[in-house]
Amino acid sequence: MGSKVTSGSVPEDERAAVWSGAVSRTLVPVEVVPRAGTPFDGRVESHRLGYVRISTLEADPARVVRTAALIARAPRTEPQVGVGLQVAGRAVLEQDGRRAEAPAGGLLLYDAARPFTVDYPERFRTHLFHLPRRLLGVPERELRQVAGTAVGPAQGCGSVLLPFLATLAASAHGYSAPVGDRLAGSVADLVSTLVTELTAARPAGGPGTPNDHLVRRVREHIDRHLGDTELSPETIARAHHISVRYLHRLFEGEGVTVGRLVQQRRLEACARELGRRGRTAPTVSVVAQRWGFVNPAHFSRAFRAAYGVSPREWRALAAPEAG
C-alpha cells in the first residue's frame, strides 16, 4: 500500500508547507526551507516494503532540516537509519560535523534519530529508504562513526547496493507481503555491510596504531565464525598465532572483553534474523542455535538483558506497520 502527495494543486505560497508536512508524516518530522525568490513545487510518493519505508521525493531547490527541537517534540518512535539514493540533482548532507555531497547516482547515509541537514541546490529527485536502526545489527558507535557519508557507485559495496535500491524503488508497489519482508531483510543486510565497510575504512580514535589491523582481523574472524559453538578467546588467539593474554590486552582499549564481544555480535545477528517476518521464519530456538547459542535458557536471559524483551516479544514487535 502506498501514498502520494503533490503540492501543485494548492496556492503557491502554501506549497512548501504542504510538501514539508507530507515528508514529515511519511518519514520523520523536518523543516523545509525553499530557495528564496524562486517558485516551489514538490511531490512525495511512498511505499512500504516489509519494515522498510521507501519514499521518492521530487522538488525544486530547498533545504531539509531535522533539528534537535523537532526530535524532542516528536512522539517517541523507533530510531531509523536513512539511505538517500540521488536520482537527479545534487544533495549535500551535514551530520555530526561531517559534510558529504552526492551527485546523481550517489548515495547518502544518515541517522534519522539525530539532527541533520540536506541541501538540494537544484531541482532534484531522490529515493529515501528508512529502516529500524536495531535491525542493522551494528553497534550504535559504528553508525555514529559513518553517518553523514556519501558513497559512489564504484565504491566498495556501493556497486551492489545502489542498483539494488534503484530497482526496489521502481518496483516496491508490485511485491506481495512475504516477498517484501524478504527483500527488506536484504536491504538491512546490505546497509549493515555498508556500515561495516565504511567503519573499517575509517578507524575511530584518530591516527591508527600497529595493532588496529590485528583488532580488525579479529573482529572479522569473530563475525565469520559466530555460528561455531567452539568460538572462544582460546580458539581466536590460536587462529591469529597470539596468546590469550595478548588478545585480551588488544581489546582493553575497545571497551569490551572478547567474550562479551562474541556474545554481543551473536545477539545482534539473532535480533536481525528474528526481526524478519514471514510464514517460513525459523523458530527462536533454531535462530539461537544457528548463531552459536547452545543453551536456550541462557540465550533468552542474554537476549532480554541486551534488548529488554524476550526473543519472542522482539519478533512480535518487529511486525511491519500497516500502510
List keywords for this structure.
about 325 residues; alpha+beta; Jelly Rolls; 2 domains; 7-stranded antiparallel β-sheet; 5-stranded antiparallel β-sheet; 12 helices; globular
Description:
The chain has 323 residues and is an alpha+beta fold. The protein folds into two domains: 2-201, Jelly Rolls (Sandwich), CATH 2.60.120.10; 212-317, Orthogonal Bundle (Arc Repressor Mutant, subunit A), CATH 1.10.10. Helix content is 41%, strand content 22%. The protein has twelve helices and twelve strands. It has helices spanning 15-26, 68-73, 140-146, 158-171, 177-201, 212-224, 233-239, 244-250, 258-274, 284-290, 296-307, 311-317; strands spanning 2-6, 31-34, 42-49, 52-59, 62-66, 80-88, 91-95, 98-102, 107-111, 116-120, 124-132, 149-151. A seven-stranded antiparallel β-sheet has the order 1-3-4-11-6-9-12, sandwiched between helices. Helix 3 (140-146) packs across helix 5 (177-201) and helix 4 (158-171) packs antiparallel against helix 5 (177-201). The chain is globular and about 70 Å long. It starts with a strand and ends in a 6-residue tail after the last helix.
Secondary-structure map:
Layout: E1 2-6, H1 15-26, E2 31-34, E3 42-49, E4 52-59, E5 62-66, H2 68-73, E6 80-88, E7 91-95, E8 98-102, E9 107-111, E10 116-120, E11 124-132, H3 140-146, E12 149-151, H4 158-171, H5 177-201, H6 212-224, H7 233-239, H8 244-250, H9 258-274, H10 284-290, H11 296-307, H12 311-317
Antiparallel strand pairs: 1-3, 2-5, 3-4, 4-11, 5-10, 6-9, 6-11, 7-8, 7-10, 9-12
Helix pairs in contact: 3-5, 4-5, 7-8, 9-11
